[in-house]
Design goal:
This protein is about 45% helix and about 25% strand. The protein is globular, with a radius of gyration of 14 Å. It has helices at about 10-15, 30-45, 60-65, 95-105, 110-120, and strands at about 5, 20-25, 50-55, 75-80, 80-90. It starts with a strand and ends with a helix. Strands 1-3-2-4-5 form a five-stranded mixed β-sheet. Helix 2 (about 30-45) links the parallel strand 2 (about 20-25) and strand 3.
């Protein structure tokens, strides 16, 4: 599956309709983003069951602001509507593959329990 472009209008639907979404926040003028783009595409072709999406931070400034993206590229992974990974910087292909496998192996019941506990401690 090739990557899709996320916009403020499509973001919520893509996240809610898919259990596993890998998002690249990028911009055309960003050198590291342009180098990471082909890596992101190659990895997306290996994982048909995962949605790979890109957010152009110049065209989608409200999304970039909503997620407090201050450095690009930033990679974010959402599983079952929970952001389980977020980190600025480009990754080598092997590291991105490894990260996807780690996220695939997460026990989402544990993640949900952890999120619920964190929310309880805020109140």
């Amino acid at each position: 599956m090739s990557t899709i472009e996320l916009t403020a209008k499509t973001f919520d639907k893509v996240i809610s309709d898919n259990d596993f979404v890998v998002i690249d926040f990028w911009a055309e003028w960003c050198g590291p983003c342009r180098k990471f783009g082909p890596v992101f595409e190659r990895v997306s072709e290996k994982h048909d069951e995962i949605v790979f999406a890109k957010v152009d931070t110049e065209a989608q400034q409200e999304l970039a602001q909503a997620f407090e993206i201050t450095s690009i590229p930033t990679l974010m992974i959402v599983r079952e509507n929970i952001a389980v990974f977020r980190q600025p910087g480009a990754l080598p292909e092997a590291a991105l593959d490894d990260l996807i496998n780690q996220v695939r192996n997460l026990d989402m019941n544990e993640v949900r329990a952890s999120v619920a506990a964190a929310q309880q401690s805020k109140h």
